[in-house]
Amino acid sequence: MTRLLIGLSVLGALISGAALAHVTVDQPTLPADSYVRIAIRVPHGCEGAATTGIRLQVPPELRGAKAMPVAGWALTTRMEGGVTVQGEHGTAHVPREVSWQGGNLPDDQYQEFVLLVRTPAEPGATLYFPVVQDCEGGKVSRWIERPSAPGERLRYPAYSVRITPKG
């Protein structure tokens, strides 16, 4: 019985560590119809290799998205496939993808990549932020999986945020 409990405890710790060891967004919820700063957190490299690039797919439900430059990294946006929306400040072109490339983030260091976004007008949606993490030696981690059922555990989950009523 003791061995079983110890084994289950170790297994639980391993599963918990794996679930936390992925690219995340700093907020689990965002208010509807708001301009919000979000940070994509990169807590580690790829199997010990330094991170050299981050490519983020922008959720099409967003009504605006601007990326913040990171010193030492080249920032690019891909508009092809993005959306154009009308807002109080005129027309906004929401990019399809944002990437930060050419940096060097060692495996034992942490970095945030920041966006200013405008959330959908209505609450209730869940938005996914798929990220591809490029690393030295051609290693790649694709944090792009979306659940097909509530509560499904994924190995490489795309981080999600829920849009809540504006407070």
Automatic annotation (TrEMBL):
<keyword id="KW-0732">Signal</keyword>
<dbReference type="InterPro" id="IPR012533">
    <property type="entry name" value="YcnI-copper_dom"/>
</dbReference>
<feature type="domain" description="YncI copper-binding">
    <location>
        <begin position="22"/>
        <end position="162"/>
    </location>
</feature>
<protein>
    <submittedName>
        <fullName>YcnI family protein</fullName>
    </submittedName>
</protein>
<feature type="signal peptide">
    <location>
        <begin position="1"/>
        <end position="21"/>
    </location>
</feature>
<dbReference type="Pfam" id="PF07987">
    <property type="entry name" value="DUF1775"/>
</dbReference>
<dbReference type="InterPro" id="IPR038507">
    <property type="entry name" value="YcnI-like_sf"/>
</dbReference>
